[in-house]
Amino acid sequence: MDYFQQQAYTGLFVGTIMMISLHNLTISIFLFKVRETKFSNLLKIIFNFSNLLRFGSIYGTYMTPDIVALSECIALEYLATIGNVGVRVTLTAFLLWRLKQIHNENKEKWICIILLVIRTILALPQLIFQRPKVVSFPDQNLVICDPNVDTFRVYLFAGMIVEFFIDIYVTARLVQILNKANKNVAQLSSNIDKKNKRTIFTAVTYWNFLRLFVVSIYHISVFIDLFSI
Predict the structure, then answer these.
(1) Domain-embedded: residue 124
(2) Is 16 contained in some domain?
(3) Helix, strand, coil in percent for the chain, rounding step 5
């Protein structure tokens, strides 16, 4: 696959993601206006808008001329970072919000708030210390944009560790809550001869373990990629 084919496939993929994000953003805005549960829809609006920023900047990076100016590079990389931070923080907030909805206790609420604040604080240095640069390849007559991850690598790593901890915490709490719900269901159905131990709570428990497994693979791959740059 040559350079132009790679650019074409990348543009198609990124453009598709942008159209999906735009569609979801429109739906989220509509639901925000008509539904009472506005907070979750607000998170969806922020998530989809951030996704548009992120993939829009990626599209812009791939579609820039062979010789890119530093101002273009800075603008695109800052947009990408803002979008990336927005996506990751809103995903964390949405996960903690769902946990609060399932188990709405005062102690649980404050734990979720503290975890979200820590994650948000760790995201800010990624914006503050963002120092993109241009890299020249004279033999190819090419100047490309480099995000220069070294300037905020530590904060990105710390933020991902907090995200992973939040995933583990939410999964553990949901398993506890769902196991308790399973026991309650078993007690209610104790007068039935044939008991079915597989309830909807069991399915949700398995789903959370699967989600944690996928998230673990994702974080491990990002860690490897982050420290191999």
Answers:
(1) yes
(2) no
(3) 80, 5, 15
